[in-house]
Design a protein that fits this description.
Elements lengths: L1 E4 L4 H10 L7 E4 L13 H16 L6 E11 L6 E10 L4 E5 L3 E2 L2 H8 L4 H9 L9 H6 L6 H12 L1 H4 L5
Parallel strand pairs: 1-2, 1-3
Antiparallel strand pairs: 3-4, 4-5, 4-6
Helix pairs in contact: 1-6, 3-4
Length: 172
């Protein structure tokens, strides 16, 4: 089974490989596609739309059996204070689709304020940490949990949920 993940980010590719590790004939290709949403998706609707668009565009990028879209965003959560990092995954074969979510992680207010003001989370985290490309390593998830989880495992969990209709007959 040929699977396209709609991103060339190595973390997203590894997350896809991890989520598909139990599928013996799966091979994963990373393809550069557009999400159709802003660089920093805000709210679940925009983040889900980005994941779905990436999945469709990845599937259409070649002779693939499945398209995968992984999208990180930020959102306010009803009943909770603050701004949260969120992760969504979408999978499609052109006829069926699946959707899954990863953990929601509260952002420190100093980071949340900058994101609310229009900055993208990855560069804000790089600035706060005095580093570069945190989004291609442990991600904000790893930094904010002391490496209990990282971006790859959070995205893999979201994708595992989205794969349900493709790995079990429980959705028929």
């Amino acid at each position: 089974m040929r699977v396209a993940v709609g991103s060339t980010n190595p973390v997203k590719r590894r997350a896809t490989e991890t989520a598909l590790s139990g599928v013996t004939d799966a091979s994963v290709d990373a393809v550069d596609v557009r999400s159709g949403v802003s660089e920093q998706p805000f709210g679940p609707s925009e983040t889900i739309e980005g994941a779905r668009t990436r999945a469709r565009n990845a599937l259409d990028a070649g002779a693939f059996d499945l398209g995968v879209g992984l999208e990180g965003g930020v959102a306010e959560v009803e009943g909770a204070d603050g701004l949260f990092l969120t992760m969504w995954a979408a999978v499609t074969d052109g006829e069926r689709s699946g959707l899954g979510a990863g953990p929601r992680l509260g952002l420190p207010e100093s980071v949340a304020a900058r994101v609310r003001a229009g900055e993208e989370l990855g560069p804000v985290m790089d600035d706060v940490l005095g580093t570069a490309d945190v989004a291609e390593r442990q991600g904000a998830a790893g930094v904010l949990t002391g490496e209990v989880i990282d971006r790859e495992s959070a995205l893999a969990a979201a994708l595992a949920g989205a794969l349900g209709p493709f790995v079990t007959d429980r959705y028929e």
